[in-house]
Amino acid sequence: MTDEDLRFNVLNHEIVPLHEILPEDEVAPLLETYDIVKEQLPKIKSSDPAVKVVGAKPGQVVRITRASPTAGRFTAYRLVVEAI
Fold it and tell me: Which of 13, 20, 31, 56 has the fewest CB atoms within 10 Å, i.e. is most exposed?
């Protein structure tokens, strides 16, 4: 990450949800819960500003947690893919 990337942390903005790299030991149970393989997860590009801030690399899974007016909290998972 360059100095320019660190000038503005998008995760500090109030409308950007929390992005976290899912620990490897939590990936298999997640995939088993939904009966899918990693490649079936929705994708997020490695060039996404939030992905850059958390330092996620292609092949890793990112957990995105956002406030929801109906559910209270909503968690989504994305597979980081190489930006083309």
Answer: 13
Q: Which two tokens stand for residue 36?
A: 């899918």
pTM for this structure? Answer: 0.83
Q: Residue 31's domain spans which residues?
A: 3-81
pLDDT in tens, 31-62: 999 999 999 999 999 999 899 989 999 999 99
Give the burial class of 47: count Cβ atoms within 10 A of its Cβ; 0-12 exposed, 13-18 middle, 19 or more buried: exposed
Per-residue pLDDT tens for 64-74?
A: 999 988 889 99
Count of the separate structural domains present in the chain: 1
What CATH number corresponds to the domain at position 34?
3.90.940.20
Burial of 41 (0-12, 13-18, 19+ CB in 10 A): buried
> In the Cβ-directed half-sphere of 58, how many Cα atoms lie within 13 Å?
7
